[in-house]
C-alpha cells in the first residue's frame, strides 16, 4: 500500500508547519489586539478551532478512501458540510462586522492559511507515520 510513497521533504514539512503556525498565530494575534467585544472574539476563535478540526477530518477521510479504508458516506458528507459551514460562518461574521476591508481580508487570509497548513501537516504526519510503519510494522499508522 505504501510502495513508492515519496517521503515528504524537510522543506515541505517545515513549510507546512510554518503555514499552520503562522496562519493560526497571526489570526489569534489579530483577535487579541482587536477592539471587539469578548463574545465576538470567542465567535472568531471558535470558527478557527472548528475550521482546523474540519479540515484535518476531511483530509483524513479523503486519504482513507484513497487507500481503501472504509469511511461512511455520512461521515464523509459531514466533513464536507463542516468545511462549508465554517467558511459560511466566517464570511457571514466578517460581512456583518464593522471591520475595515483590510481587517476582513487579514482574518480571511490568515484563516485560510491556517486551514491549508493543518491539511498539509496532517498529510505529512500520515505519510511519515506510514513510512515508519514500513520499517517497524508494529507501529500505529493512524
From TrEMBL:
Keywords in alphabetical order: Membrane, Transmembrane, Transmembrane helix
Protein origin, superkingdom: Bacteria
Transmembrane feature ranges: 12-30, 42-58, 70-93, 105-122
Pfam families reported for this sequence: YiaAB
Record-annotated YiaAB two helix domain positions: 12-64, 75-127
Protein name: Inner membrane protein YiaA
Organism expressing this protein natively: Chromobacterium vaccinii
